[in-house]
Amino acid sequence: MKYKLSEIVEIISGGTPKKTIKDYWNGEIPWITIKDFRGKYPETVTANISKKGLEKSPVKLTDENDVLISARGTVGEVMMVHKGYTFNQSIYGLRANKDKVIAEYIYYWLLANKQIFTKNVHGSVFDTITKKTFDYIQVDVPNIRKQKEIITKLNIIDAKINTNRQVNDNLAV
């Protein structure tokens, strides 16, 4: 069945606590920027915010398996996150409507269709997508059983890629 992307995910905006307020930073809550997009899940993050930074800013916490997509500058990079991450305003969080789609299916679909986003950018200084962009993107969503089959096959490929990356990293040392 075909859906607008905005019909099958909740779109969550990111944010940044005020950098001038030191109490908002160097806490225990991971805060993701585009620099942290290096794989399916974040391996490290460049910054952490405090509980106070979370409470006093537009930052929101992720749920398990939310999908993040870069929305400004390097548009269309994707990753999944576990519960408890935050992210800046150059990133959107996509929370899957579990009645219609599996979050991991959205991740793989976005990964395979990055060019849709890179072709729909605007902005004079930085390439940008907006929340409205998700209203124009059509996603063909098979039934949940078929989504699970697709995810299983792609996870096997991901595991092999990750193993090869680890071997290459060891050889480079």
UniProtKB/TrEMBL annotation:
Its EC number is 3.1.21.3. Gene3D superfamilies: DNA methylase specificity domains. One of its GO terms (biological process) is DNA restriction-modification system. Coiled coil: none annotated. Pfam families: Methylase_S. Signal peptide: none annotated. Residues 2-169 form the Type I restriction modification DNA specificity domain. One of its GO terms (molecular function) is type I site-specific deoxyribonuclease activity. Keywords: DNA-binding, Hydrolase, Restriction system. It is an enzyme of class 3 (hydrolase). InterPro entries: Restrct_endonuc_typeI_TRD, Restrct_endonuc_typeI_TRD_sf, Type-I_RS_S_subunit. It comes from the Bacteria. PANTHER family: TYPE I RESTRICTION ENZYME HINDI SPECIFICITY SUBUNIT, TYPE-1 RESTRICTION ENZYME ECOKI SPECIFICITY PROTEIN. Belongs to the type-I restriction system S methylase family. This is Type I restriction-modification system, specificity subunit S.
